[in-house]
Amino acid sequence: MSLTRRALIGLLFSLTAAFAQDERPLAKDTDLPADPTANGSLPTLWIAGDSTVRNSGTQRGWGEDLARFLDPAKIQVMNRAIGGRSSRTFYNEGRWEKMLAGMKKGDLVLIQFGHNDVGPLDASGKFRGSLKGTGEETQEIAKPDGSTETVHTYGWYLRHFARTAKEKGGTVILCSPIPHKKFDREGKFVPDWNDWRPWVKASAEAEGASFLDLADIIGSAYAKLPAPEVEAFFADKGTHTNAAGALFNARSVIAGSARLPGKPLAAFLNEEGKAAR
Questions:
Q1: What CATH class is the domain 39-86+94-147+174-179?
Q2: Residue 142 DSSP SS3
Q3: Three-class SS state of 252
Q4: Residue ranges in the chain modelled with pLDDT below 70
Q5: pTM of structure
Q6: Distance CA 246, CA 60 (A)
Q7: What distance in Å separates the CA atoms of residue 268 and residue 103, rounded to the nearest whole number?
Q8: DSSP code of 195?
């Protein structure tokens, strides 16, 4: 291996090893365009998630590009993802209930959380971490105002989202989180979310929802690309994608959905969406 190649791999490793240090601020609703009102005459694709799904500035989430692959005469996209949220805070802030209120029979629901669930439960983690796993255990957390919050497991929140959306007649797809940008010292892509992916799968199976393993689908695609090409998909050290990365991931969502039972998005794809499969 040449010195230049060794230097490049070393640089990439040093950069990608620090992805956990990327800032994940709590976005305000005013940071993003106002949410449009759903057209009741069309099926709706609802999206819940964090900043890897919808973002602003040089960062962009994959949910912002899904409409590119869909026929607007057949389905509308309502992306309600917002930066800095975990499954816990999306639930606690009433965002899920608000989204749920607009759902109707025949709608589709894509849900991806995890990037902010990994943190501590208390103030050191901005009160957004969830308990790890899929069980029914809870933990009481004291809040600055003197109140307490009952924190559930990651899987509990995902199951609640899936179950209540299905009760409204929606078709639910639970997604594992998109992978971080991380390489080993030889420049090979490092698989991500190995503990969390089974939790998402188990939650989907428990509620009869579909499981879209974005960590594996996108991670496997990254592993086939030269490291500098993957590097070019990111707007920070290794968490948030730029426009090119968001489009790559959105295409992966469309392609992955074609392998799900019943192919839930197939009837709504435009020509570009059909080609993405």
A1: alpha beta
A2: strand
A3: helix
A4: 1-21
A5: 0.91
A6: 6
A7: 17
A8: T
